[in-house]
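$ ./design --mode recover --in tokens.txt
reading tokens...
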């Protein structure tokens, strides 16, 4: 399962409920193709999303 991690608060300050729903649908729809190319991935994949203000180094 691809688990989207919305790197904001749960009060939807940065991601609206509709945006979260769309991202979750994309993750679900894309997972079979991703796994067909990258079969050795862990069962659970965490996919972090931010509003653009925060970046990992």
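writing sequence...
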């Amino acid at each position: 399962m691809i688990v989207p991690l919305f790197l904001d608060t749960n009060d939807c300050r940065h991601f609206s409920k509709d945006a979260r729903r769309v991202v979750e649908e994309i993750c679900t729809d894309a997972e079979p193709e991703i796994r067909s190319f990258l079969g050795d991935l862990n069962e659970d994949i965490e996919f972090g999303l931010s509003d653009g203000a925060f970046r990992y180094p």
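exit 0
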